[in-house]
Amino acid sequence: MRVGADLLSAARATGSRSVIFVGTGKNVGKTVAMRSVYEAACERDIACGLASIGRDGEAADVAGAHAKPRLFLRPGTVVATARDVLPRSPASEVIAFSNLPTAAGALIYARVVHPAFYELVGPPTASGMREAIDALKSFAELVLVDGAVDRVAALAGGDDAVVVSCGAAAAGTMQEAVDDVRALARRLSVQAVDPERPLVHVPGAFTASAASAAIARGERRQIVVRDPTQIALSGKAFLSASERLDLRCERPLRVAGVTVASIGRDRGFEPRAFARAVAAATSLPVYDVYASERTVA
Amino acid sequence: MDASSAAALDVPWLLAALEPAGPYGQIAFDDLRPFVRGEEDAARARARRVAELAASLDAGTLDAVRETLRGMPDAAPAIARASMGDTLGDANLLELQRFCDAAARTATLLAGADVPEATNDAVRETARALEPGRSGKFGFYLADDFDARLAAARTATSRAQAEFDAASGRSRQRVAQALGREEISGGEFVVMRADLSGSLPPGVRVAREAATYVMCELELDEATLAAMRRRDEAAEAVAEAEEAARAALSGEIRARASALERAARALGEIDVLVAAARFAKRYGCSAADIENDAMLSFTQGRHLPLAAELEREGRAFTPVDVALHDVAALTGPNMGGKSVCLRTCGFIALCAAFGLPVPAEGARVSLFDEIAWLGIGSDASPDGELGGLLSSFAREVVRLRDVLERAPARTLALVDEFARTTTPREGKALVVSLVAELQRRGAVGLVATHLGGVAAEAGVRHFAVRGLRDVPARRPRESMHETLAALADTMDYTVVEVGPGDEPPGDAIALAALLGLDESLIARARESLKGA
């Protein structure tokens, strides 16, 4: 089983040229999943553009001082990263500037000339991220974006494929981890509106109070948001609302699969049981990059 | 000019119209100051230079220069760092390369034009020094050509990296085969005990264990570790060679820093000049004669912000002629353009002060110490600490007091219906007195008023807007835009000098009717006027 290649195929099958990896929490394997897809793309000679929402690829987790997966990039890869973290050596080809600010200077675009470890620091705003993704598409065939914790706002307005990552590091129990990823995956997989049936449009975000009001009045029509990122409900609140309301969107996202990281720093779940539970909860193909396994419900 | 006058005279509009495109232009623009008395020759020369630039270059060339300057990065921090002895990074070197490219392109576009030199020897030499780094259409790469050591070091690193990749790949493949997997991806991997027949293969270290799985890490063998050490040593040699190449380039920049900064300043001046030329070309402006004696005189003058607004509505601005050597009164009907006439005076004087061609066919203008707007529009915001406690009349008076206290030697005073909110009798007395005071101070000014007899009592010249040729009838269901257009067609906005006692006919009631005021109310007003 070549998980990276399989996940790459699943993402490419959505027809999108960009893949965003979002997660249920920190250290749930987003970067590892992205790296496996990246390596599979390199093997197929697909020119990749890489970006990050937030900061990725640094040697240690800034928040917890733990070791982080690093990004060893191959020649031809284009990165969108902060000017101050671009490695001085080996030299990269600097190809474009931007006015997008990041925590470590303005975002610039550079092409990897010699294989090396890179750190990705991205713009803090969703609109900035979209601008960076669009720019990367002009330099690369496939754009991979390492998302931040549950930062789905960057998905708004795009046509990206989405990979959802979950793991033991972000939950106290396996059930909690499964519930979290079920809610996130279902939220991102909200179906397109059916124009033939009664509907009510929600301008802007669909909040918890709006959901409560709709449930209280026994709303039977489709409740339509622009895209799933406009649903401002997470976890159990979303699951509860989605069972009682017919939530729809104008621009559905393309969720390609879920990755699991069953072993966290403080706890571990039985890998196959966890993968099966996630597959059953999300009805999506589940990839365990560490165990090199794919599970389908 | 104070903030209130600046707002009334549409200074923000003028600044937006003159905004330069690039980072150096912005610095030069921020440093721009109006010419002051004694600098008439310089103001005249600059306006002529801008006008000639506008005449000699087509709009496409001006736009191309702006586009070039807009896309130019700010290389000033890189030049400053190099001059302090820092070794520049590759992003800095790309900025400098683009700076040199933009300077060269600007020089080509403006060849033969009367502008500062966009490029100099330092720019050309820097461009030559950076040329080996040109990569693709827009990029920069510290190429092997910069330093002979680079190629050798990089070749060695590539070889060492390939050896390391091969060695670690073999280890990875060996472990994968032993575990019956297609691949081992990443540094950590999970092995299910159920899939394991016997013990873990060599080259695998156990990181964690549980009842059903083992979390493992690849352990590099001696051969792979040795390959990694060789790779790391080679990479260090590359880093040293790259820093040496960057240091050499940075040294060249340092040696040329002051000349590069001069080029940046020149590009800033060019940016400002080109923006001014584009403004002059777009709005058909001409260089004014800058006079030593206090005066403001122009023919076919236009107030550009209003002209632009009218143009958007498909209407045309009626240019005005004004000739002022001292203070004069201006009368005319409502909506006849008195305020616009005052604003046109201020706008033209403002353009001349900044060494710009003015929006008029011909103009003779002096440089004023202050352009002061008093009256309507100057009292809009409550004043300072007293805030809303002051009435509109009180705010007008306080502003007038402040202007007179500043007592500049040469003022252009534009007074729009001063004292309109008090009793006509006292208001007129104040206006007459103000005119006399301005005259006494040697100001040039135009005092617009509806109060009759000001010019005669103050003994000054009297200008008047000709006013309505005829009052158009309001048609049923006519929109306000249509009404205003019909009114504009009938209004003669021409300003002419009249005798001191020639008061214009009142059009206020006719205009009120045209604007849709209740007919019975209008009829009663007409009756009342007859009886007065």
Write a structural description.
- The complex is a heterodimer of chains A (about 300) and B (about 525).
- Chain A is α/β, with parallel strands linked by helices.
- Chain A has 2 domains: about 5-185 and about 255-295, 3-Layer(aba) Sandwich (Rossmann fold), CATH 3.40.50; about 190-250, no CATH class.
- Chain A contains 7 helices and 17 strands.
- In chain A, β6 (about 95-100) and β7 (about 105-110) form a beta hairpin.
- The longest helix of chain A is centred in the middle third of the chain and has 15 residues, at about 175-190.
- Chain B folds into 3 domains: about 20-140 and about 245-280, MutS, DNA mismatch repair protein, Chain A, domain 3; about 150-230, no CATH class; about 285-505, Rossmann fold.
- Chain B has helices at about 5-10, 10-15, 25-30, 40-55, 60-70, 75-85, 90-110, 120-130, 150-180, 220-255, 255-280, 305-310, 340-355, 390-405, 425-440, 455-460, 480-490, 510-515, 520-530; strands at about 135, 140, 190, 205-210, 215-220, 290, 295-300, 320-325, 325-330, 360-365, 370-375, 410-415, 445-450, 460-470, 490-500.
- In chain B, α4 (about 40-55) packs across α11 (about 255-280) and α5 (about 60-70) packs antiparallel against α11 (about 255-280).
- The interface between A and B is large, with 38 and 40 residues.
